[in-house]
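Troubleshooting: if your tokenizer reports a length mismatch, compare your output against this known-good record of 475 residues.
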Amino acid sequence: MTYPDLYLMIDGQRLSGGGRRTHKVVNPATGAVLAELPLADAADLDAALTAAQRGFRRWRDSTPQERSAVLQGAARLMVERQEELARIATLEQGKTLAEARIEVMMNVGLFNFYAGEVVRLYGRVLVRPVGQRSTVTKEPVGPVAAFAPWNFPLGNPGRKLGAPIAAGCSVILKAAEETPASALAILQCLLDAGLPSDVAQAVFGVPDEVSRHLLGSPIIRKMSFTGSTLVGKHLAKLAAEDCKRTTMELGGHGPVLVFADADIDKALDTVVAGKYRNAGQVCVSPTRFIVEASVHDRFLAGFVERAKKVVVGDGSGPDSIMGPMANARRLDAMDRLIGDAVAKGATLETGGARIGNAGFFYAPTVLSCTPLDADIMNEEPFGPVALINAYPDEAAMIAEANRLPYGLAAYAWTSDAARQRRVAREIEAGMVGINTSMIGGSDSPFGGVKWSGHGAEDGPEGIDACLVTKAIHEG
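Known-good structure output:
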């Protein structure tokens, strides 16, 4: 397919050229340049802020029915444009078309859910003596600055746009420069569905310049960020200067506890597919496999066998199960982390190498007996590598799962109902999957604890994060 034109979207205007700096957008399957993306300068960001301020004054007074109609309309357009959207995402991010199509439908489900929720943003009336009336209401927080990463080029912008729009806020979206066309296509669905042009803007630029400029403005009243813990901490400090509300979905290092009483084959069929989804570039990717010693060898052998069958290729290819990594930086990270682990005593069971001379392909990798002082046991690898170690009992397994400061997603496989409840209670994570890898849904909060962030997206909690609570007392 032909790659679409790139631009900034400010107050309904597509802006490009004009002497702006540019960023090369690359096809990760080939390494070829797809297009030059214009980057915002200070004047562009000021224009976006002015539009967002005006758009908020308009959209906060919209009716729930108006907001619902826009969200439902955008969802219908995404269904109609599913194949186009999926091919754009695959072209600029690398994931398989099958995964990109699912990502489109995730957005459709979320927008339709929010379309229903907007009519249920209730307050309450408090019990007071005769003659006094006290009410609690919820109001949109204000213009939102939203920062989305490249790993889910359709889904992340959908999350960042859907919740503020549902709540009655305006939003300035700064999506990843690696995957701009996907974000612009999602925004266009909303505009084509009737969203006023000043309610949502899309800008791209040098990340630190954009974040400092937007978060330094008193117009912005909330920040939503998905990305690394390191960058998240930096942005949280900037937001704190003006006491802006924040929702932070940061890094993870997903532990997977596999007990001896689990259905091992079912677990393997599920977690191997989950591990190599999107080449492991998933914040909730299962990564540290904490296996009870008595079934470790069987689990390891089954995992390696399945990993070797994963077909790696261009995401648009009909046989590809795993596409390339999104950029050359991830290849370098894999080489560094895996090399360090092997040097410190880990056993490389399969993979551990780049594939081919074009694009950013990396072999599905399995490491066993990886020592805890290896960097990869403490740093989120964000790639197609599984770490499989043996542990003696439940207590040791839970201790390892909670050892790191991350707490986004965790998984456990066991047929013992009492243990399922214990593990769910003891694991320090925002989301826990028991005998499943399905931990997300349009009606379910998505977020972490500890260094994995705070607040939640999706579900009623996603809209609530864009609302403020006001108590009104009348004598």
